[in-house]
Amino acid sequence: MAETQGKFDFAIDRGGTFTDVFARLPDGSERVLKLLSRDPQNYKDAPTEGIRRVLEEETGRMFPREQPVDTSLIGWIRMGTTVATNALLEREGERTALMVTQGFKDLLHIGTQARPKLFDLEVAVPDVLYEEVIEVAERVVLVQDGCQLPRKDPKRIVTGSTGDSLEVWRELDLDLVEKDLKGVLSRGITSLAVLLLHSYTWSDHEKAVGALALRLGFSQVSLSSQVMPMVRAVPRGYTVCADAYLTPKIHQYLKGFTSGFKGGLKDVDVLFMQSDGGLTPMDQFCGSRAVLSGPAGGVVGYAITSYNQMEKKPVIGFDMGGTSTDVSRYAGQYEHVFEATTAGVTLQAPQLDINTVAAGGGSRLFFRSGMFVVGPESAGAHPGPACYRKGGPLTVTDANLALGRLLPSFFPKIFGPGENEALSSEETMKHFHRLSKEINLFLSSKQSQVSTNGANGSGSEMSVEEVAMGFIRVANEAMCRPIRALTQAKGHDTSQHVLACFGGAGGQHACAIARALGMKTVFIHKYSGVLSAYGLALADVVEEEQEPCSLQYEQQAFRDLNRRVEQLSERCRETLCARGFSSSQISLEVFLHLRYKGTDCALMVTADAHPANAQSCAAGDFRSAFTKRYLKEFGFTIPDRPIMVDDIRVRGCGKSGIKSVYKTKTGRGHAKPVTMTKCYFEEGYLDTGVYLWEELPSGHSIKGPAIIIDKNSTILVEPCCEARLTAGGDVCMTVGSDPHCALGTELNTVQLSIFSHRFMSIAEQMGRVLQRTSISTNIKERLDFSCAVFGPDGGLVSNAPHIPVHLGAMQETVQFQIRSLGNTLKEGDVILSNHPCAGGSHLPDLTVITPVFRKGVSSPVFFVASRGHHADIGGITPGSMPPHSTSLQQEGAVFISFKLVTGGVFQEEAVTEALMAPAQYPESSGTRNLHDNLSDLRAQVAANRRGSQLVGELIDSYGLAVVQAYMGYIQSNAELAVRDMLRDFARRRRQETGSLDVEAEDFMDDGTAIRLRVQINETEGSAVFDFTGTGTEVWGNCNAPRAITLSALIYCLRCMVGQDIPLNQGCLAPIKVVIPPGSILQPSQNAAVVGGNVLTSQRVVDVIFRAFEVCAASQGCMNNISFGSESVGYYETVAGGAGAGPGWRGRSGVHSHMTNTRITDPEILEKRYPVILEHFSLRPGSGGAGKYCGGDGVVRKLLFRNQVVLSVLTERRSTRPYGLQGGEDGSSGLNLLHRADGRVLNLGGKTSVSLQPGDMFCLYTPGGGGYGREGDTNGKPQTKRRRLNDSFLERGSVFEYRMAQEGV
């Protein structure tokens, strides 16, 4: 691509609020400009206006607004835009229809079946993007070796692009399709998304439908096989829908944009930024690749300007805007993800791993139950922060203003209703005085309680500045957590990074965040306020080609692999040459999507640093590259396991980025402040010099405290930090250590919030180590584990992630060990336990407990523990989840207080013996997967070691007394929130009925009652939960250990509190739980319990919510389905209907309450297991009727190709999920078996049955109960459906990981 000398070049980032323009002038000089993205009184389109202004001001010629801009002086234009993101957030895309394989019309509605927010009873899931669904009578299935399905007639065999063979079971009837498509067109829908199963490898049917649709007049046709040919129908389906929904909107915007120029920009090179950080020509810019177009420019900007090729020091990008903060990482290569969720839509496309977190300048400040809370709610652009003079709330920006870190005199007067006033310190201080008064009132009431109890406390009130400073520190800690997660997830040390800060608000927080993370350097580019625009000027044009693959990475496959890589490379090369690039400007990078056979953990690997050799394919030594990266990320490799190639990807780059020639002036002497101001820090108010960035000479240093200001940003240089201007005009800050101020044991509410984050961070980091170092699918990929920190009394302090069935249970386990082992615990000991009598939930959940010792203290000062679900620990069935067990011994190996590590030595022999012990019982086996058990137990020990180390570091920083004191305060904080909720409920209950007692009962399918009576003490905010009258222990496995009831209770309390609180032992402090021994909820020591964990737990939740009249019952079942043979085993839980509540309908096809497991994608299921998914859709009418209807269950039909044993463990097959307040009950579920010979059998709720090839299992899951009588208008008004952009939306790999953890 030729240089455009003598012309104006423009790089423009059109954001939600502002549009940033970077212009390179004909003489090589540069200028930047910022303008409002929407200002309809003055101009139609912000990017056009920015170009017009620069041309007019620089040439002195008139370029009238009402006339198209003359393009003769324009060399190129590059743009990043939030048009696609905004259309997705606002749901304002094109009207779209989805065409899908018959039997799967609700596939994208059900999605993964997991709910997005674990504790929200109203399951608010963003709407699907299509308006109508057409089911196509067509079907292809993969050919499987050893398939024993009886063949009635020969089927056509075809070969897919992966090399897999497929059978065409049902040919496409284009006449029928044409009729359906004409019907859609007649209703005004002209955009079509097509998703047919297995089209990622064989796309003929999709192509035929696409050609027909274009012929009939559809203006946009998106085929999933073209948009993203990757296996997994659900994310591919979301991606193709987004493409069909957004691409017409992008074309509409482009049409409007080009119309503002003479000749419609025909002779100008116009490029748009894609989500992957590469530029693409305007006519190739499409919806599915456009969602991160805006932030991607910023990543390219900091990557190219901050990363030093010589030092190779990795960089963390920190882009703090108004609503949220974007965090990313660069270490010489862009970090891409290939599946990420934006605005509730999972897109399967290469995108930069940009993690968006809920703390920006506009994040709101709250004081809740004694805790400082920042976000996730945002003040938005309107009304904005309080200081904007539009009646907005207190925000992070206001806190910075209150501390003197923002100076109104340096801001333009664009605030207030007339947009002509300065920032208002008065408004900010008025709000802060009010909030400080509320905080001090709370503190004085706590103080009087403390004095009554005879304890010490801090009597001093908090000043307005201390309150504002507190919120800044809490906001900083909230932003540090995802940065730690992003780096440590992949085995990197956070402190060894440079912090590259950009965006309007980041400079005020950079020093504090770098210091908290142990980083020594902060880099802020001279264009940090417009870095996304500058990044567009530096970016390259990118062309990507990708195709799926099913080859094993081995010598005999290399010929085929080399041929396919060369084909894709040639296509990239041809496209870039056609765009004007010479061969010398083109570079190609080959990626293989690799995984160990039998695992799901695929890595997109480049062989950049691993040249080809005799044992590798021509593109490089991918085996070495893969094993090195796998070892780095996960801490081990699997040397004897074959490596599979899932996808081949080639990324071609046309070098076209500019080189910046800007040099700042060099000066002698010291830089002089333009003024002095008073700025508040930990030490109080300090004299702070204010400097103008543009007047600073390079090479000089400014010691903190200081403020550096330019047109678009404010940088705070904190005390003990030093800023230096580089030759390029950028600011480089050296971060000194914090002069540590001693913290006492008395309550400091700011530190309370920070300690809460720190304790959670310890549990999260333990989880990352466990996931990285484990080997089994259950822990590594399904993330079925949780990690926790406990006090010296075994009381829960913090727990991550929040798997409902683990919530209170681990605390019981730790406290049992303290009672049982007492003073015999020594440093270097680690305990293993899973027995229900010792706080276990069911036997496959193995809990590993490590006591944390401190020099000079004889007993443990803390405990850390990790609980992981092991795929098999022996028993009468593979998977250790037998549907028909009647005693604990049939369910697998048992551990009560087993010393897994003694004196630092892992007891491999003893634990192996214990895991094999179940073989001594009739029809029972020892563990069927000893290797994975031992590997995962070692991983749990390693996770605990990391937790113990982090607790030690926290104690080193603050002292044992302080850390233990704050542990107690955090538990008290949770207790306070629960007490407030109970008082509030008691007050309403007394006004309505005069009674403070509530009760409820419900039944298991066998008639066993679960009874509950709750007596509430309004004065204390306490309650007795009494389960007296509950049925006796049962013959079977629906007995639930006491720990399960406590987990269900904590889950219900958190849902009813309705806000984010620490989930620890404090939640249960106001509660006394009475459970009759010998009942189904506290069975005898050898009772079978596997069903109690997955079924009875749901009924306990139903009974608690019925007593408090919170909402109607959800499906009340997890629908546990497993099948297996000698060579294969599979387990899933299946969604149903959620209960309706006051003001909301129940969600259909979703998991509820005590489970949130994701379901296996249809294409993966059929690729790996001897089964064909015939049907998966909603079950219409199964939700209970009412003013607000209950959600519908689902219908799932599995056709078996080989002999297997099927096990079902289900409930609500004879009882129905209750309706509330006159709403009707939901339908009960049904398990049917259709034999190949035509017989249909009702299997009942719990059974194991041998199946033959051709047998089909049909699962009908229960619906949710309805709420309120139909036609009743006296109830509460229906809540308005929240628009997506009213609530903050996280994204990125850290968020995906947490969602996956909560989806267990």
From TrEMBL:
InterPro entries for the chain: ACX-like_C, Hydant_A_N, Hydantoinase_A, Hydantoinase_B, Oxoprolinase-like
Residue ranges occupied by any Hydantoinase B/oxoprolinase domain in the UniProt entry: 749-1269
Name used for this protein in its record: 5-oxoprolinase
Pfam families per record: Hydant_A_C (PF19278), Hydant_A_N (PF05378), Hydantoinase_A (PF01968), Hydantoinase_B (PF02538)
Domain Hydantoinase/oxoprolinase N-terminal per the UniProt entry, residue ranges: 10-215
Family per similarity comment: Belongs to the oxoprolinase family.
Organism of this sequence: Pagothenia borchgrevinki (Bald rockcod)
Domain Hydantoinase A/oxoprolinase: 236-544
Domain Acetophenone carboxylase-like C-terminal: 554-725
Coiled-coil regions listed: none
